[in-house]
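Records of this kind hold a single protein each, on a pair of labelled lines. Below, a sample record shows both lines together.
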Amino acid sequence: MKTKRFFYLPIIGVLVLSIFSCAKIPEGAVAVTPFYKEKYLGKWYEIARIDFKYERDLNNTTAEYSVNDDGTIKVDNNGYNTKTGKWDQAIGKAKFVGSENVGRLKVAFFGSFYSGYNVIAIDDDYQYALVAGQNLKYLWILSRTTTIPEDVKDNYLQIAEDIGYDTSDLLWVEHNQ
């Protein structure tokens, strides 16, 4: 009987850690409040990102958000892989960490392994967004079009730097397909 109990303890520990780690937001970052899910839905173009392994070699990257039947948000990411010459797609789901009135979500592309997705700046018309991951290794600048005004870009870069991001690490995405 003791063997079974000890067997379950590591599993419970991993589940508890997963729950807490997915809801993280970088220190100093504040999620947008009020946040309007309906205005955020639709297609976004990735203008810049801190590159990481799942988006490496991708250009023309977009994310499209819609509501699933169960109320979660469908995340449909697409990008053109410059190494393979093929389009890559990743479909996931997002859930709000707390209230839908706050731009703090967790997103999963691999089963139940969630990661932080925090909208930390957005304009009133929901045309441009600054999104922080769960730590300073993840940052995205998004737009409803393939370009972003210089004043919005400068403002978002300043917000990111004030939090502690090294904005020289940003990869500026090409949209030419």
Remarks:
- Residues 1-21 have pLDDT under 50 and may be disordered.
- The two ends are 60 Å apart (CA to CA).
